[in-house]
Write a structure and sequence with these properties.
Two copies of one chain form a homodimer.
Chain A lengths: L7 H6 L12 H16 L6 H7 L14 H24 L6 H18 L1 H8 L2 H4 L4 H24 L7 H22 L4 H19 L3
Helix pairs in contact in A: 2-4, 4-5, 4-6, 4-8, 5-6, 5-8, 5-9, 5-10, 8-9, 9-10
The structure holds a DNA duplex.
Chain lengths: ~210, ~210
DNA sequence: TGATTTAAGTTGACGCTGTCTACATTTAAA
DNA sequence: TTTAAATGTAGACAGCGTCAACTTAAATCA
């Protein structure tokens, strides 16, 4: 019988805690792993049991970090909103471009994000439990994203190409158009690449026409 | 002990079948009762067990009329779409009104329907299982509603107030704006009546501006 | 009509789910 | 070093959708 030297190889190669009972930063791992599951198989595929298995943790472990499953999904949604906001901000801050063009690029970025992160987007804007549970910090993350739109609209107003009216109303109109379009795409659309970009350009131009001076 | 005359009173007052084993038109009852539950407590509150109880029927009875729960919910959604289409059609056919005004009234009717039938609307446009299962007849009901919009847009084009362009693209833009706005309202809005109608009028006018000749 | 097939409703069971409670282990504080 | 707090685990429970097997009523056909 071979002599068993306990855990030697492991403890040599990886530096690891003496015990694996307490995971490091499980809260963060839960969020990112849940996000991964959502991207892979949709939000309905996320179960606490499955999530626990993937992280080598029991099914009730999440309850030490989140009130319940909805609370966890809200955290994932919140993370999605920060990614979303960053994508919009990148366009808003792109140097050497006139505000009106950056505005249009932001519209394209909005649509691009929705199509490239369909499961995130659905979770953020359409998952009933998440949408109407709404943590305070989740609300804040959503507002921060919306604020990117208001900032660029303000710049456009100052450049004189967009009507000088109530920013909130204007932002609501633009946001509605973008969100409605993405929702329709996610639900129904099954077409070719070329038609998609034609539709997208049409949407961007018409939304712009809606807020333009006339 | 009183002599029990079985079911006499009942069978005198109501004309009823000899047995209640087979319900009359259970399929229809399932749809309308499920719709009622959705309006009362939201789609998540609909369970086959609860539905069965309310109709004095076992929990598996629906399986004789629908493939599964999703299939039942699709039928409810389909019914919602026919109500929705009717509401739009009413505006489109209202006599003695110019096309452009009927178009705007249709926009208002769209929003009104969404706000007065929040649970229906969510089921029709936002419930993941329903939206991406999509029976053939459900698709047809949805297309019929969308077609109302195309018909009025065509009239508006002929009246010369709306740009003569691809009807499908134009309808998509209008639909997107309306749907996005309603989604945002259902998710977030908690305001007073006056502000709501101001927002709604703004939306309707801006969407119109988007499709107008310029 | 009577016999038989088909449609419609029922009960029992199964596996899966989220979550509560009580317990175990590790880390931090006193 | 003792104690308290944080974190992870296992068992149990009720509710869910759904499958299979059975029962009853209605429809069809001889």
């Amino acid at each position: 019988m071979r002599i068993k030297i306990p855990d030697m190889k492991k403890s040599m190669t990886e530096k690891e805690p003496k015990s694996t009972y307490h995971k490091v930063n499980l809260r963060e791992s839960l969020i990112t792993e849940a996000a991964r599951m959502i991207q892979e198989e949709g939000v309905a595929s996320v179960t606490l049991r499955g999530l626990g298995q993937r992280l080598d943790v029991s099914r009730t472990a999440p309850y030490r970090h989140f009130e319940d499953k909805t609370d966890l999904l809200c955290a994932v949604s919140e993370y999605g909103f920060t990614l979303f906001r960053q994508a919009l901000e990148t366009e808003r801050l792109s140097p050497g471009v006139r505000a009106i063009s950056r505005f249009q690029n932001m519209g394209r970025a909005y649509i691009h994000f929705a199509l490239e992160n369909t499961s995130y987007y659905s979770l953020m804007f359409r998952e009933p439990t998440v949408v109407d549970h709404q943590t305070a910090s989740l609300k804040a993350a959503g507002d921060a994203a919306l604020n990117e739109l208001k900032l660029i609209l303000e710049e456009c107003q100052n450049e004189g190409l967009v009507a000088q009216e109530n920013l909130d109303l204007q932002a609501m109109f633009v946001w509605s158009g973008m969100h409605g379009y993405c929702s329709l795409l996610l639900d129904k659309y099954q077409g070719e690449e070329g038609e998609l970009s034609r539709m997208t350009e049409y949407m961007v131009s018409k939304v712009l026409q809606g807020v333009s001076k006339h």
